[in-house]
Specification:
Elements: H1 2-14, H2 20-30, H3 43-54, H4 71-94, H5 98-101, H6 104-162
Helix pairs in contact: 1-2
């Protein structure tokens, strides 16, 4: 009767359905000297649970955290401050127009470069439209190829119906 009860408790234990009292019964059973031979494999596990239950932590736990100056925190704050100062000074310098910083020859070269880039950009946009047209044409050719394949199947079936070779 006791063995049947232990086996039922083990089955419940493996399905994680036992209560704390039932687990204590299992621990008490497996802490005995004699255990049923077919349940010997569970004995080390439950004896381990009993031993770890008796263990205690004996070291003192400090309640107040140590107050240390975190050098990295202050270094990062200083780095951000230097970075922000650098950005602020660069924004102030870049507010002047580019034409005011260049002489006449450089200004002429700058304007010609801007015109060349605008021309290049417009040509790229035209070629992009042509490529899109080629893509549409390619999809239309693919659809036509599929339709021709259907016609081939149609002719095969009509040849079978009319027994043409």
């Amino acid at each position: 009767m006791v063995l049947d009860n232990i086996e039922q408790l083990l089955e419940k234990y493996e399905n994680a359905e036992t209560t704390l009292q039932e687990e204590q019964q299992l621990k008490d059973y497996f802490s005995q000297e004699t255990v049923a031979p077919h349940l010997e494999m569970y004995k080390p596990m439950f004896t381990y649970f009993l031993q770890t239950q008796k263990e205690q932590y004996t070291k003192d736990v400090p309640l107040k955290p140590k107050k240390t100056i975190n050098l990295y925190r202050w270094i990062s704050v200083a780095a951000v401050a230097v970075l922000m100062f650098g950005i602020y000074t660069q924004v102030g310098n870049s507010s002047k127009s580019i034409e005011g910083q260049l002489n006449d020859e450089q200004l002429l070269a700058y304007n010609q470069t801007v015109e060349a880039f605008n021309l290049l950009s417009s040509n790229f946009n035209k070629s992009k439209d042509n490529i899109n047209t080629l893509g549409l044409m390619s999809t239309s050719l693919d659809k036509g190829t599929e339709n021709i394949a259907y016609l081939g199947e149609f002719s095969n079936t009509t040849n079978k119906i009319f027994k043409n070779k």
